[in-house]
Design goal:
alpha/beta, Glutaredoxin, 3 helices
Length: 96
């Protein structure tokens, strides 16, 4: 399974998620600038929508923060918007 977190610079919920992940996620995190960099499973990929709007546009995201969960074959399973503590805790459990 793969995960892609899309944030924005001036976004308080994005900052809240980042803080939560910094304190709780010991698994791998990688910043990307294009979708072809999403290659490995069990990694949280991260992109900034204001720096790389084409990534957010590809998934037709209406708001950030968003975390997209993928199958290993690239098929989107679901997208979670905003600060969802229960989802974040499951994400950390999956990736740690």
């Amino acid at each position: 399974m793969k995960f892609l977190k899309i944030s924005q610079s001036n976004c308080r919920p994005c900052a809240e998620i980042n803080l939560f992940l910094e304190h709780n996620l010991t698994g791998q995190r990688k910043t990307i600038t294009s979708l072809d960099q999403v290659t490995e499973s069990n990694v949280l990929y991260e992109a900034m929508a204001d720096e790389h709007p084409e990534i957010a546009a590809h998934y037709q995201l209406g708001s950030v923060p968003a975390i997209i969960r993928f199958e290993d074959n690239g098929e989107v399973i679901d997208t979670t918007y905003g600060v969802d503590k229960a989802f974040l805790e499951k994400l950390v459990d999956t990736l740690n």
